[in-house]
Write a structure and sequence with these properties.
alpha/beta, eight-stranded mixed sheet, 20% strand
């Protein structure tokens, strides 16, 4: 009897607890949805000034997970703007009679995230906006180099009297882990084709500094990208690249008076004095004797896609953003799952209302197998309708592999691309386990290599035999041969030409056009124009973004799990965790890799 009472009491407690828990998550879910949809409609008032403040996160791909930017602790949602929407909104503003001009005013500390490619494309959109005859002025307390690159498009640039101005150049900083691995007793062994001397993703685990080949390619990449940026700014400000380089060499941080002396700004003003500038441009005040401002994010929301002709043929946009990994997944975790992306491309191929496809690639690559799965679907798509690749900040290694079949490739000037090469890496931790922890290893095998895959924390328990080493080398050679052959076929180049520009070497988007790896420099708007021309619908088309589908509850739980995981961490610790996760992913990559790890600091 006593057991029965305890049993039924416990069962009741479990049921009640489950119901309460279920209701809690249900109300949380409803509250989250309500918070997301509670934003008020934005009106564009007459005599408005469009304020480019970059406070929102600007990303390539629209957010598939509606809870991705939800802060469940405050039940508020940060805004994320798709780049294409931003560009089309700036285009709309040029002909919108309510918009009198653009004001670039960026609080650097409060700015959202934006990539170098997105920055370049927004700047290009602002250049086109100027042809409307409307003004662009810029004012900032602090001009970082990145902010100034954007602001240099303005007709007039102003700075706060006690502000600061940076112009210091570009750098690529790499961390090397060999010393740490040696101290731990971990042995790293790399497998890459002999000719891939520039494929340096393995170097941090084998060396303590850059190899001569890697240093040479990174210097040339950085010099080329810096020349592009400097030339753009010099042309806009009526100065020379030599003068800008002299500033970077001698005075990388300037006082406002120095910036004015070098013609980098047009005036030194307090923020309230900008009202006089707006008056000079003929902007009228509202009934409250104030100027009307509308942020770029609000304007994007207000104008939407009202210019679309719903009966027009479609150009489909597919996004390939993140590292390329094997498998299929609904997870939105910064990775490109090979089968998932292939299915999305197939969806666009089978949709008869889509007459051409633009694949926006922003990827450093990853798994060679997953890249090949995506490559095959690109080949099938190309047989049925035009496909154009638009390269973002990165379209390197596996990112280039999946781009090669396209009818045309459009790259930003600052795109990092190429890196046509492969590698495999193995970490052997047997000595560490034995010497540091006293853990030893033994096995019973039916065949010599039966235990070859045995590992702990991604580290092999033993060194490969000569036969196993030969097999691994043969594997990377085979993938490299396939990679280069497919690039040659896709780009209509002689194989020998591809071999000369491959070797794992990275190129800027500017150089990629010169050597035949891309067809033109430009952004996603340029790529859409090329796609429309090739499909014969340039005079009448509309855009449809072909996105993977995600179950709402899965999206909610995934976002909640991520926030719970990092809830106790401040921003600096989150950054450290993200760096650790990137390092762990690099080390634990399995199979042959087409991956490019380069980062250039701008």
């Amino acid at each position: 009897m006593k057991f029965s009472k305890v049993f039924w009491a416990a069962l009741l407690a479990v049921v009640v607890g489950s119901v309460i828990s279920g209701l809690f998550w249900l109300f949380t879910f409803i509250g989250a949805v309500g918070a997301m949809g509670s934003s008020e409609a934005v009106a564009v008032m007459p005599n408005s000034i469009l304020k480019v403040d970059l406070t929102d996160n600007i990303v390539d791909s629209p957010v598939v997970n509606p809870f991705a930017n939800m802060d469940f602790t405050t039940m508020s949602s940060a805004r994320t703007l798709p780049l294409l929407k931003v560009l089309r909104s700036i285009e709309t503003a040029a002909t919108d009679d309510r918009i009198k001009g653009i004001y670039i005013n960026i609080d650097y500390a409060g700015a959202g995230t934006i990539s170098s490619a997105a920055l370049e494309e927004i700047r290009d959109a602002l250049v086109k906006f100027k042809t409307s005859g409307k003004f662009i002025v810029a004012y900032n307390d602090v001009y970082s180099q990145t902010v100034y690159y954007l602001a240099s498009v303005a007709d007039k640039i102003y700075i706060q009297p006690e502000g600061s101005f940076d112009w210091h150049g570009m750098a690529s900083v790499l961390l090397f882990y060999k010393g740490a691995l040696d101290k731990l007793g971990i042995h790293a062994e790399a497998f890459r084709p002999t000719v891939c001397k520039y494929k340096s993703a393995v170097e941090p685990y084998l060396l303590t500094k850059m190899s001569d080949a890697n240093r040479r390619q990174m210097e040339e990449l950085g010099d080329g990208m810096w020349n592009t940026i400097s030339t753009t700014v010099a042309d806009a400000r009526g100065t020379t690249v030599a003068a800008l380089n002299k500033i970077a060499d001698t005075t990388p941080s300037l006082f406002p008076e120095q910036a004015l002396k070098h013609n980098l700004v047009d005036g030194i003003l307090y923020r309230d004095q900008m009202e006089e500038i707006f008056t000079e441009y003929g902007v009228e005040r509202n009934f409250m004797n104030e100027f009307e401002f509308i942020s770029l994010g609000d304007y994007c929301t207000a104008v939407g896609n009202t210019t679309e002709n719903l009966s027009a043929p479609k150009i489909g946009i597919v996004y390939a953003e993140g590292g390329i990994v094997d498998g299929q997944s609904e997870a939105i975790d910064g990775n490109i799952y090979g089968t998932t992306l292939a299915n999305t491309i197939a969806k666009a191929r089978k949709d008869e209302s889509i007459k051409a496809v633009v694949l926006r690639v922003n990827s450093p690559g990853g798994s060679a197998l997953a890249s090949d799965i995506i490559w095959r679907e690109m080949e099938l798509l190309k047989k049925e309708k035009p496909v154009i690749v638009s390269m973002g900040s990165y379209a390197a290694s596996g990112g280039y592999y999946i781009s090669a079949p396209a009818d045309a490739i459009v790259a930003n000037n600052l795109t990092i691309t190429g890196s046509i090469g492969v590698f495999g890496i193995m970490l052997e931790g047997g000595d560490m386990l034995r010497n540091k922890l006293g853990i030893t290893y033994d096995a019973v095998k039916t065949n010599p290599s039966a235990d070859f895959g045995a590992n702990v924390l991604g580290m092999s328990l033993r060194k490969p035999t000569a036969a196993e080493r030969a097999m691994l080398i043969s594997s990377v050679d085979k993938v490299y041969e396939a990679f280069t052959s497919k690039v040659a076929a896709g780009r209509n180049l002689e194989l020998q030409k591809v071999l000369e520009i491959a070797e794992g070497r990275v190129w800027s988007g500017t150089d990629a056009v010169k050597i035949g790896l891309a067809d033109a420099n430009g952004g996603i708007i340029t790529a859409i124009g090329v796609a429309a021309d090739k499909a014969g619908i340039a005079d009448n088309f509309r855009i449809e973004e072909v996105l993977p589908e995600m179950d709402p509850m899965t999206a909610f739980l995934q976002s909640l799990n991520t926030q719970v995981k990092y809830a106790a961490l401040d921003d600096e610790l989150k950054a450290v965790c993200n760096d650790y996760q990137t390092l762990k992913n690099d080390i634990l990559r399995s199979g042959v890799q087409t991956y490019c790890p380069y980062r250039v600091w701008f």
